[in-house]
């Protein structure tokens, strides 16, 4: 995939989330939202290495994964707005939505809660011979959950087709991951489970795609799980109301020089004004796309309160 | 330190109780996710690390280890006060609480004590998802060996947390997120109350309303509405579900003959069912009407505010429940 495709995919997620923040401020999105600003190259690269038959399970910071996986923008906006979306009809909201139609097993707002589920999806694939792979993304802090340890050992011992992507954005909510683990790299933990672990630059979609592609190929061939640690940085707070007082001054500014869009823009600038103009044009297209999606979402009605007890049992 | 009498918000009252605890008990420790350097996700532990250093520390995101470590440290002479960010996340540490903490004193015939306090906040708020909205107090009140308190106002947030910390039993304090901004004036230097004790917070003749946590305020609003219609409602804040102080409830029902229990948790198997059973058992001959129950219907908590609004009980549901039992013909 080329530079401009990367740019378009990442810019779409970025613009989606910037609009989310505006809608939140305007009171159109209730509750708190967790944005992946700066981390978009990870879902973009990873989802390109997947097929429709694969299962995707992500964290509460999963808008980017949903978009990269092809969930419709109108449905996403309307779910976040508490409207009767085609995803979860307003039942899930920002940190917990899912989509059976997209093999999207859902976000999960319990840290590491999705990992054992993803192991189960891999187990199902191993049994039905579908050749499907189960990919799960979590944050760095999630690896400190008991469920994470149990899931990785379980997947490894049965050589299940699982790919774990740890999005290492250096913070677990407001606490630096450096203060909370003693291993040099989170990928080092893979050795304890007898599976390969790699650390990659998570701000480059092509690098992520290659790493996930290799892990998926290995998993499909019966080689078992892989742990991929993707280095990245958050450009915004942990959640919509986070003022980030705990971050050293200048940290976010310097992260802005390394974030995926800035990199692509730098490369384009070196190439010449035409290349830059093409990126500017993409920005305009993306902005129009997001405008239209918000408009579409606003036209989605709120759920009928009379349906609140529906779908609890078969 | 704070003045002897202060006006504090609920969350500041929780913070003040921590300051008191660390100053009073050299063996007290405070730990949990983001509680030290980031000053607490909700501000409950603000300033503690600056004042008390390594006795206040951040942990990995490992609830099972947080609770288990508090237990082990308590068994070896410490007095841990730990924070579980949302009540829903306690599920991740359930073995440590139910199988380990709750058994410690009993199976050792008092040889071990477990003087630890688990603080959390729970309940509903607009847009919060199904994994951040539950009211789970019945899980713990059901488990012998644990003490469970749900402060409904800033003063109780301070006093009940002090009681919990001072107690040599493992105690859960379940705060309510929506109450954090409420403020009140109260004394900070009074004696520490023992754990337990419900409180009649409004006198009435016609019906008794028993509630805890956020539903206390909703019940007071309901009582006001009822008063405007000439119905006099007595409101009791249960405060502690364990130990349960039932005598004031029985005395009230004896006078009013009617009772409604109101909580935010799902109705089925909620602690309101326990109150209803106790009333049937101990106050049967005082009753002029069936026991009324108010709680969330038995569904998951949806995120969309329009759906939440029909699930989360409020004053109107309490009024409706009172109306229902008042409509019963007197026998
Ligand atoms: C079991 C559990 N404990 C605590 C939380 C509160 N919490 C939400 S996000 C978060 C930090 C997660 O950090 P990390 O896994 O590094 O992911 P990131 O937010 O950096 O993407 C915490 C502690 C939770 N949601 N679930």
Describe, in plain words, how this protein is organized in 3D:
The complex is a heterodimer of chains A (314) and B (331). Chain A is an alpha/beta fold. Chain A has eleven helices and eight strands. Chain A has helices at 3-25, 41-48, 63-68, 73-80, 114-128, 146-157, 190-193, 205-220, 251-258, 260-271, 273-298, and strands at 55-57, 104-106, 134-139, 162-168, 171-172, 175-176, 197-201, 226-231. In chain A, the strands form two sheets. A six-stranded parallel β-sheet of chain A has the order 2-1-3-4-8-7, sandwiched between helices. A two-stranded antiparallel ribbon of chain A has the order 5-6. In chain A, a hairpin with a 2-residue loop joins strand 5 (171-172) and strand 6 (175-176). In chain A, helix 10 (260-271) runs antiparallel to helix 11. Chain A is globular and about 50 Å long. Chain A starts with a helix and ends in a 16-residue tail after the last helix. Chain B has 331 residues and is of the alpha/beta class. Helix content of chain B is 36%, strand content 21%. Chain B has helices spanning 10-24, 48-52, 63-75, 94-100, 104-107, 137-141, 154-166, 214-228, 247-256, 271-282, 305-311, 315-326; strands at 5-9, 28-32, 56-58, 79-84, 117-122, 147-149, 171-176, 183-187, 199-202, 207-211, 233-237, 240-242, 259-266, 292-296. Chain B has a seven-stranded mixed β-sheet with strand order 3-2-4-5-7-6-12, with helices on both faces. In chain B, strands 9-11-10-13-14 form a five-stranded mixed β-sheet, sandwiched between helices. In chain B, strands 1-8 form a two-stranded antiparallel sheet. In chain B, helix 7 (154-166) links the parallel strand 6 (147-149) and strand 7. In chain B, helix 1 runs parallel beside helix 7, helix 3 (63-75) runs parallel beside helix 4 and helix 8 crosses helix 12 (315-326). The radius of gyration of chain B is 20 Å and the shape is globular. The N and C termini of chain B lie far apart (58 Å). Classes of the chains: A alpha/beta (314), B alpha/beta (331). The interface between A and B is large, with 41 and 38 residues. Thiamine diphosphate (TPP) sits between chains A (59, 61, 109-111, 138-142, 167, 169, 171-173, 238) and B (33, 61, 63, 85, 89, 92).
